[in-house]
Design goal:
Layout: E1 2-6, H1 16-30, E2 34-41, E3 52-57, E4 60-66, H2 74-77, H3 82-95, E5 99-102, H4 112-119, E6 123-128, H5 145-148, H6 159-166, H7 174-185, E7 188-191, H8 194-202, E8 209-210, H9 224-233, E9 241-245, H10 254-267, E10 272-276, H11 279-285, H12 287-292, E11 299-301, H13 307-316, E12 319-322, H14 332-339, E13 344-347, H15 352-355, E14 362-365, H16 370-382, H17 384-401, H18 404-421
Parallel strand pairs: 1-2, 1-5, 2-4, 5-6, 6-7, 7-8, 9-10, 9-12, 10-11, 12-13, 13-14
Antiparallel strand pairs: 3-4
Helix pairs in contact: 1-18, 3-4, 4-7, 9-13, 10-16, 16-17
Length: 432
C-alpha cells in the first residue's frame, strides 16, 4: 500500500504530532508499505513558488510546496489555496497513493487538498488533531471562563460567538463549506480523543473512529548521571521540580501555572518550575507576570528543547503539568512525560482525561480553580511514594495503550475501510 501523508508541519523538533507522523510512517515501512509526506514552506530557498522540492526527513520522503500569504486571510485561502494546487496535482500524479492520510491542513494545504486527493483516485482519511474544522483558533469560549469557573460545556460554534471573537476575520459560510468538503471527499474521518469526537459532532461533523495518539517506545532513557548534569547546569540540584512544555501561550495555562507556583511556594519554598518552550515567548509574554507574582526566581525558562536534552528534562522533573484553559484535544506531551515515569497533573478540558487517569497516573483538575490545581501538584511533590507509584502506572499505561504499533494497526484497519468505500463521493453533490 502507498500512503501519502498531508501535514503542513514537517520539522519533528517542533511538535509531538509531527514526530508521531514520522514514527507512523516508519512503522508502515517496517510492515512493507511505501510512505511519503506532503508539506509546505514559506522559505523560497527550500521550495520555489509554483514548484515543489524533495527532501528526506526521519527516513521519509518529503515533498515540499511553497505557500506564503497573510494568515489573517486564512478563513478564505484555506478553503482552496491556489498556491498549492498545481504542485500538489503533480505530486499526486507522480506518487500515485492508494491512501492519502491528512493531518494538519488548515492554513496552506487547505481543504482543497482533500478534493485533489479524491480526484486523484486515492482513498482519503483525515485525522483531526484540533478544532479548526469549525473554530478559527484554539477553542476557548466553551467553558465560560473565569465568570463560570470553567464549568460550562457550550461546544457548538455560532456566529454570535464567532463574530465578536474574529471580527473582520470571520467568513460567513466557512464552516458549512468545510463540512461539505469533509462529507464529499473524506472516506474516513478519525479524531484523537472521544471528547474531541463529542465536540466535532456538536458542530455537525461526522466522526468515523477515535484513534488515540501514540509514541514510539523509547529504547534508551537518560542515565542518573545525565539527569543530575541537566539539573546541575540549571541550578536545580536537590529541589522539587515541576515542568510545562510545548507551545507557550496564555491558553495553554502558563499564566495560571505561575499563579499556582505562588501558592506552592508557601509550603514548598524551594519548588522550581522549568518552562520548556521558546525563550523569547516566555520573556515577552510571561516574565512580567512572574515578577509581579514574586516567583520569577523560581522559574527556569530552558528555551526550546529537543533530542537528548528534551529526554533529560523529562527525566529530571518530579511532576509534569498541562494546565490548558483551552480545549486541549489530547496532549501528546502527557504521554512523553508518562513514558519517563512521571505523574502528570492535567487539565479537565479536552482529551487529557482519556490519557491521564485521575488518582492513578496523576490527576485531572480544573485550572480555573488555581488553589485546587496547585493542591493536586503538591500531593505528588510532598509524597515520593505516591509520585513513584503514579509514575510507574503511567509508564505501564503508555506501554499498554499508546504505542505506535497499536496506532499503525488501527490505521491500517481505517485505510482498508476507506479503500472499500473509495469512490462513493460520486453520489454526493459538489461542495459550493
Amino acid at each position: 500500500m502507498k500512503v501519502l501523508f498531508f501535514n503542513e508541519l514537517s520539522d519533528p523538533r517542533i511538535g509531538s504530532s509531527v514526530r508521531q507522523m514520522y514514527s507512523h510512517a516508519e512503522r508502515l515501512r517496517e510492515l512493507g508499505h511505501e510512505t511519503a509526506v506532503v508539506t509546505c514552506t514559506q522559505d523560497e530557498a527550500r521550495a520555489r513558488p509554483g514548484e515543489f522540492a524533495e527532501e528526506e526527513i526521519c527516513g521519509t520522503r518529503v515533498f515540499v510546496i511553497h505557500s506564503d500569504y497573510p494568515v489573517r486571510l486564512r478563513a478564505w485561502v484555506s478553503l482552496d489555496n491556489p498556491r498549492v494546487r498545481e504542485p500538489l496535482r503533480r505530486i499526486l500524479d507522480a506518487f500515485g497513493p492508494d491512501v492519502v492520510h491528512a493531518h494538519l491542513i488548515h492554513t496552506h494545504l487547505g481543504y482543497g487538498s482533500l478534493t485533489a486527493a479524491r480526484r486523484a483516485g486515492a482513498a482519503v482519511v483525515l485525522t483531526t488533531h484540533d478544532v479548526m474544522t469549525f473554530c478559527y483558533q484554539k477553542l476557548t469560549c466553551f467553558h465560560g471562563g473565569e465568570q463560570a469557573r470553567g464549568e460550562k460545556r457550550d461546544y457548538a460554534a455560532h456566529w454570535s460567538k464567532c463574530i465578536p471573537c474574529q471580527r473582520l476575520r470571520y467568513r460567513p459560510g466557512r464552516n458549512a463549506r468545510i463540512r461539505a468538503v469533509l462529507e464529499r471527499d473524506v472516506d474516513r474521518l478519525t479524531t484523537v480523543s472521544h471528547e474531541l469526537k463529542t465536540v466535532l459532532e456538536a458542530n455537525r461533523i461526522r466522526v468515523d473512529r477515535v484513534v488515540w495518539n501514540a509514541v514510539r517506545p523509547q529504547t534508551t532513557f537518560p542515565t542518573p548521571d545525565e539527569i543530575a548534569a541537566f539539573r546541575a547546569k540549571r541550578g536545580l540540584t536537590g529541589v522539587p521540580l515541576i515542568a510545562i512544555g510545548g507551545r507557550l501561550h496564555e491558553q495553554k495555562g502558563v499564566g495560571k501555572l505561575l499563579e499556582m507556583l505562588a501558592i506552592l511556594r508557601r509550603d514548598i519554598p524551594d519548588v522550581r518550575l522549568i518552562v520548556m518552550g521558546k525563550r523569547d515567548v516566555y520573556d515577552r509574554e510571561f516574565a512580567d507576570q512572574a515578577r509581579l507574582l514574586d516567583v520569577d526566581d523560581a522559574v527556569v525558562p530552558t528555551g526550546w528543547l529537543d533530542g537528548d536534552e528534551l529526554q533529560q528534562a523529562y527525566g529530571a522533573v518530579d511532576v509534569f503539568v498541562t494546565p490548558s484553559i483551552c480545549f486541549d484535544t489530547f496532549g501528546l506531551v502527557n504521554l512523553e512525560a508518562m513514558e519517563h515515569g512521571k505523574p502528570v497533573v492535567a487539565t479537565t478540558f479536552g482529551g487529557s482525561q482519556e490519557v491521564v487517569l485521575d488518582g492513578v497516573t496523576g490527576a485531572i483538575a480544573n485550572p480555573f480553580d488555581v488553589a485546587g490545581f496547585a493542591a493536586r501538584i503538591a500531593e505528588f511533590l510532598e509524597n515520593p511514594r505516591l509520585r513513584a507509584e503514579a509514575g510507574e502506572a503511567g509508564r505501564r499505561r503508555v506501554q499498554e495503550h499508546f504505542t505506535i504499533e497499536r496506532l499503525a494497526d488501527e490505521f491500517l484497519d481505517v485505510y482498508e475501510d476507506a479503500l472499500r468505500t473509495r469512490g462513493s463521493f460520486v453520489t454526493r453533490p459538489e461542495a459550493r
